[in-house]
Amino acid sequence: MEAPELERRLVAILAADVEGYSRLMHADEEATMSTLSARRLLIDNLIGEHRGRIANTAGDSVLAEFASILDAVSCAVEIQKAMDEANAAAPNHPMRLRIGINAGDIMVKEGDIFGDGVNVAARLEGLVRGGEICVSRGIRDHLRHRGGLVFEDLGEQLVKNIAHPIRAFRLCIGGETPEQEGPSIEETFEAPELHSAPASVTELSADNEVALELALWDSVKDGRPAELESYLDQYPQGTFASLARTRLEEAAHSPPGPVMPTAEDAAAAALDLAFWDSVKDSNRREEIQAYLDQHPNDHFAGLARARLASPDVS
Fold first, then answer.
1. For domain 7-196, which CATH number applies: 3.30.70.1230, 3.40.50.2000, 3.40.1570.10, 3.60.21.10?
2. In the prediction, which pLDDT does 262 show?
3. Cα distances (angstroms) measured from residue 196 to each of 151, 190, 259
């Protein structure tokens, strides 16, 4: 059977999740699920009203695509307003969304969307608090001259699993003003000389480029080969490129280190030990057999079989 053909298109991507969802579930699972279901109806309807398409929903997250950047941003603003109104109407069960918006080329497979643009949108949402919207530089540049929209420059951000820094902007909602003092973003673009512009100008200076390279290297220098390769992808002729290649070569010729147990392995070992401690002094065959049934290949399985063969066990 042939794999379905991948479709590509350029879209605006909206990614949202619930702030503190795990904490809310731990406090009251039923109330949290009921609130989430009610809020999802609001979110889904608003996405449809703004000509968006929901591509994926997993747990507390929503991923949607829009053919229009303005539609995506307008939808995000309306979602946050609707969430605020719903929270005011049900103050005992507040729920706040973090939203990230990016524009990029995506791959579509069986209705779901994939690609670096999707990953960036998901990372943007983690840069703001619940009730806020974070957008990429491409989104901000597209809308910067549209009246009524104010953006706070969050600077270059290094985020998980994205090799290159992301320029992020927080969208100020409902007349809110940026927290940072000094000239607005628009004023910095009009500065007559680059060297006299504040550090929030959009175009990176040489000093900023050096700082970004240093930040990326500090993040990967003691990491796995894939992390070192991410530095080389971004800075193939960078200051630390030769050192990164040397470390990659050393890693390729080094014997693999000991495999650290995962949290699941540690939990399984603890259960194995606890079960064995409860039956190790027993002379009852069914209790030792119960251990073997549960842990046939674990640490004490051989000893358990030897005990079963003993005439003292009945």
1. 3.30.70.1230
2. 59
3. 22, 11, 53
